[in-house]
Design goal:
single chain; 122 residues; mainly alpha; 2 domains; 4 helices
Length: 122
């Protein structure tokens, strides 16, 4: 019986330790992101999403131009396509990082709805 109690205590201690670490990670991310991105609202996030959509469109257009154009594909065209793909992929990766930061609570959303919720909660 004592062995089970000790195992249970170890599990609780590990859980508490991991919760403290998670809180520290959250605080560090909040501080660092806020230091680099002061304000983030719906309009700014949507502008970011539009930029990623434009990068996607540019990449796809370059692919169609390269592979379905009148001329045969050349290394120069492939290099241009690769650059467009890398830009698009970086945009997607960055937007996914932003989405995850929002979901984890690392980023405070500065927009009317969030301010209204805070005011009504007070």
């Amino acid at each position: 019986m004592a062995e089970h109690s000790e195992d249970y205590q170890n599990i609780l201690a590990q859980k508490h330790f991991l919760e403290e670490i998670e809180q520290g990670i959250e605080m560090a991310n909040q501080e660092m992101i806020h230091a680099h991105i002061a304000s983030l609202g719906r309009d700014r996030v949507l502008k970011f999403a539009v930029v990623v959509a434009k990068l996607r469109a540019q990449y796809l257009r370059a692919a169609f131009d390269l592979f379905l154009g009148d001329a045969d594909a050349e290394p120069k065209g492939v290099a241009l396509l690769r650059g467009k793909r890398e830009m698009f992929e970086e945009g997607v990766t960055a937007f996914d990082a932003l989405r995850r930061a929002i979901e984890k609570g690392y980023v405070e959303i500065a927009d009317g709805a969030a301010k209204k919720r805070r005011a009504s909660a007070a």
